[in-house]
Amino acid sequence: MPYKKIPGTKDILPDEALWWEKIELSARDIFRLYNYQPIRTPIIEEETLFNRSLGQTSEIVQKQMFLIKNKEDNYALRPEATVSVVRAYLENNIDKTSGFAKFYYMGPMFRFERPQKGRLRQFHHLGCEAIGSTDPSLDIETIALADDLLKAFSVFGYKIKINTLGCDKDKAMLAEFLRKRISEKKDLLCQDCSRRLETNVLRILDCKKTGCRQLVNTLQLEDFKICAECQTHFNRVSDGLNSIGIKYELSPYLVRGLDYYTRTVFEITHGELGAQDALGAGGRYDNLVKELGGPAQGAIGFAFGMERILLVAKLQDRQTPKNNLVYLIALGEEAKRGGIKILSELRKNNIACDTDYENKSLKGALRRANDIKASSVLILGEDELKRGIITVKNMLSGEQREVKREVLVEELRSQYAKNP
Ligand code: AMP
Question: How many structural domains does the chain have?
Fold first, then answer.
């Protein structure tokens, strides 16, 4: 084998890619229900765009960026898309032309992580961003949208955890509060968290190491109060979620590792995922638009990991979906020439079809038709050519009949209409 894929990347072969398409299709339907519009941003951006927005001390910027450096420029492969969407929103003056806007996207993201189950270096986000509002109703709608998406994907048994980080001032005070309490017992911290104590103390709250967990459990976070305005916002969000019957858990220890998050944050986990149990996560980022040079506007978004959705989606009948495909076997030069016309006519009539391009024998070609689960086979040999007919074999019943060439397309169309 001359080449292998890079560790932490994945080939998504057709059998699996079909399921990706199913998920993507139902996601588009749900996004449409909530009036989200598609957006596609580049996968490379200026490195500084991420450094500035995600935070110099964030895990992603410190350890996980895929950097591309050439003589003059420093680019990075995007580790997530929120920042790019905000950049695109501002660069294209959408803040001035439409103000409030809702976007969704699906695409690859890149993080230089140690590959393990559920953790890749190239993975895919299915996410959305609503930019231009601080209204708590939008937080409610956004969480409802995440919930609806999972239902549409037939994902069950997930948990929605929500928390509020408060505004920037609250976050700074929380960091101070944590630093004080944690410093008293800092011997319990793992090596990473000892560093985080100085650089990104909030992150200690979601460290999974035993010592850190023990310490965090003694912090009595309930002693810390966010400002009245942020508390009112959060109360509105939780009341709203209750009013539409969305089940969630309040999770005071939930923090997000990126600088840009403020107020409502949420994470959706699934027990079947093991150590990497987050299906998706998101939250408000009310300062990011301004931070990137735009007006002071609130925003909120989230992203699911596609690979993780596929790990837990209970898609019915996980086999390759039934293939309504007609397979033409043309035997000999002349039949092949005629075959091209038949294929063209079938496709013009919206009938999916294919043929043998490997000059197989009749037996070999029939085997191939069977392997690719064709529903009908058309056989065009010398005899059929002479008589102006085609032999049509139904691959399910095995029944074989002769059909006049002129009525072939019509016949097949009615057959498909009967057995779509
Ligand atoms: P994040 O931006 O880290 O909150 O990511 C949102 C979601 O993307 C996570 O909840 C995961 O489902 C997924 N995700 C993040 N990083 C990876 C990764 N390295 N490999 C696979 N999925 C990931």
Answer: 2
- Quote the strand ranges of 56-170, DSSP E: 66-69, 74-77, 101-110, 122-131, 158-164
Helical H runs in 14-105?
Answer: 14-33, 47-54, 59, 82-91, 94-97
301 found inside a domain: yes
Averaged pLDDT in 10-residue chunks for the chain of 420 residues: 93 92 96 98 96 87 92 95 98 96 98 92 98 98 98 96 95 93 91 89 88 90 93 98 98 86 96 92 96 96 97 69 85 96 96 96 97 95 96 95 96 70
* Ligand 1 center to 255 CA (angstroms): 15
Tell me: do 259 and 358 sit in the same domain: no
Domain of residue 263: give its range. 14-167+226-317
Residues 344-363: b if buried by 16+ CB within 10 A, e if exposed: eebeeeebebbbbeeeeeee
Q: In whole angstroms, how far apart are CA 365 and each of 345, 356, 357, 360, 373?
A: 21, 6, 10, 5, 12
- Indicate which residue's Cα is closest to atom 17 of ligand 1: 119
List the Cα angle 327/331/332 in 5-degree steps. 140
The answer as to whether 53 is a domain residue is yes
Question: Looking at the DSSP assignment, which residues form a beta bridge with residue 77?
Answer: 44, 66
- Side chain identity at 75, as an amino acid letter? Y
End-to-end Cα spacing for the chain? 42
Residues contacting ligand 1 via CB (< 6 Å): 80, 111, 113, 118-120, 123, 125, 278-281, 303-305, 307-308
Q: Is 254 among the domain residues?
A: yes
Runs of H (alpha helix) within 372-407: 382-387
The verdict on 19 and 148 lying in the same domain is yes
Residue 262 lies in a domain: yes
pTM over 0.85: yes
CB 195 within 8 A of CB 182: no
Per the structure block, which two tokens stand in for 229?
A: 């305005």
- Nearest to 46, CA basis, from 72, 70, 76: 76
The length of the chain in residues reads 420
